[in-house]
Design brief:
elongated; 2 domains; 9 helices; mainly alpha; 76% helix; 0% strand
């Protein structure tokens, strides 16, 4: 229920943050501290609320402006906090950020490690990504058997 509540708050918070981007205010972080919705989300995220950390990560990765690297770095931090609590979706997103080099240095080995953690928890997209990495030797030693294993495991979930 808490995650649903946070996801419902996400558009409101995204709107508040988008106002900053559209206004091109130079002190985005200062504005965050003045907006009550953003302030509450940040306070709860800093206090360890993994649902708020995840929502903030999602919002920060959707913002597109000249301060993108700063947003992506904050998203990465939120995803890592949630991933460390065992959330496979957050683990997958950390892997994606390492794979793409978004908010962090591109590191295929770290991407594979995070995908592996999420794949072990039955995250289908992570299983597919990991299969591809084993197939082409991206960040891991190429291994057709492991590629086949992970792709088969992903396919067995019967999700679109």
């Amino acid at each position: 229920m808490t995650l649903l509540k946070n996801l419902l708050l996400a558009p409101l918070m995204a709107s508040a943050l988008a106002q900053v981007v559209l206004a091109k205010e130079p002190h985005v972080l200062e504005y965050e501290r003045k907006n009550p919705v953003v302030l509450e989300m940040l306070r709860l995220a800093e206090a360890g609320d993994v649902d708020r950390q995840y929502v903030l990560g999602f919002i920060y990765t959707t913002l597109k402006d000249e301060s993108g690297p700063r947003w992506y770095r904050r998203a990465y931090e939120g995803y890592v906090k949630r991933a460390e609590k065992g959330d496979p979706e957050a683990m997958y997103k950390v892997g994606v950020m390492h794979f793409d080099g978004t908010g962090v240095s591109k590191d295929l080995r770290k991407a594979a490690e995070w995908y592996q953690k999420a794949a072990d928890r039955d995250h289908q997209e992570a299983q597919q990504q990991l299969a591809g990495m084993y197939q082409f030797g991206d960040g891991v030693e190429a291994d057709e058997d492991k590629a086949f294993y992970w792709m088969s495991r992903a396919a067995s979930q019967n999700k679109p």
